[in-house]
User: Fold this.
Amino acid sequence: MKVIITDEISESGLQPLLDDPRVQVDVRLGLKREELHAIIGDYDAIITRSGTQVDQALLDHARQLKIIARAGVGIDNVDVDAASNKGIIVVNAPFGNVNSAAEHTMSILLSLCRNVTVANASLKAGEWKRAPFTGYELKGKTIGVIGLGKVGGRVATRCKAFEADVITYDPYISEKRAEDFGVRLVQLEEIIRYSDIITVHTPLNEETRGMINAGHFPGMKDGVIIVNCARGGIIDEGAMLAALESGKAAGAAFDVWSEEPPATALLKKLIGHPRMVVTPHLGANTFEAQKNVAVDVSREIINYIDGRPLENAVNIPRFDPDLMDHMKPFLGLVRQMGEFIAQLAPANPAKVGFTYQGKLARFDCAPLTVCGLASLLNSQTEIDVNMVNARLVARDMGIAVEEVRSTESESFSNMVSLSIESSDQRRTISGTLFEGIPKIVKMRDFMTDFTPEEHMLVISYEDRPGMLGKIGTIFGEAGINIGNMNLGRRKKDGEAMVVFSIDSPADPDTVDRIAREVGARFVKAVHMTL
Assistant:
């Protein structure tokens, strides 16, 4: 296999490739776009960092390219869709910098607590001052870790080594996983209320953007310390500045920013605040991390050559072609079911179950299980979850995955059911295909019949006259048009479950108003990517 390396990569990390006689490695740095296009057709694999754009134009010249390896986490410079269309596997290295990020979190936290940066500047300026730089110990402090993934788990472990009391909020891990780390799993409100120090370690997505905002700071302890070594934007930077200026926060330590490099007046003012310890996104910037990501992608290329599973592939799985023809119509169904139920799921799931009934159950349903699992988990963790690594991610999150097949089916020739269980809750949906169109036919024990659409609202309430009219009025006053409605109920005057398909998103105020006025037992806005 011929491999071209187009960006600076740790040479020691490439040793697995350099030691393999089947691999020819060519290091070609600083190539112009046209030069790379002219030679890429001779290579089976390319290893890049962020300096090379692996776009449609490049791929059009890549006649025999089989694998694209990004030596790092982000794949913004790779056109994954274009690669997938050409059958080219894309791999990255999501874990090589995990330890570096955790250690950097501790370094800027300790620097803040012990005034290292300002004391260093003072002494170098010829001063000898001690009293102004009196600091804080971590011992005995309550440290709230938001996100107990690869990095957050390591931070929690290190904080415990400092004899701190660690609590954590992560709605996507099981209680057992928290127990394995020796930390207490709590709600976000408890993190806000009881923590002396709050540190965030989540991906940045619609759910986590502004997760810590102006509404949270008044409920925090006076003198709270905030740390962000995860992603810029998880903590509202304007609210952070206000908390520092008011004295509510004793200090903050940030490595990441909503805009990089920071250019706005707000960010410049926040960075310049005397009680801020700041670094320019250095979490992964260690020699060890750079070596680790190179080792990871090198091993993935060797795995590909040997025909072994690729743990960090971000796009296409490998299936038996004969089986794929039969399963393909159901892949869209389980993907939509996974995305749908993920937004209704109870916190801290312990088990995810897939049940296949009818003719479908005669075949190997593993491709469907990993597809549904990847869809379910993809928005709930800091890494890209795909059909190759979905089971590994679930295992790391402490989630058991169960698959049941039965050729017997009461109502449909084929039916797929997906359930999510926590210690005290269970959510179940069932779906099938009608003329190739995915349909949700059951939620809990309510019979339903709807096709998932982009914007939806799920409500359960006590069935009483006028409830649907009241909901329709609220939607109308909010300027939200109802496309479809599906009502399920067990009996007259009992609990009802209604699913609305709406033409535009339901804002939080509208959802809250509906919940109040109908006395909803459960209400959730759902957004489907479709």
Observations:
- The two ends are 37 Å apart (CA to CA).
- The mean pLDDT is 91.
- The chain has four domains: 2-92+290-306, 98-274, 328-452, 453-530.
- The longest strand covers residues 426-434.
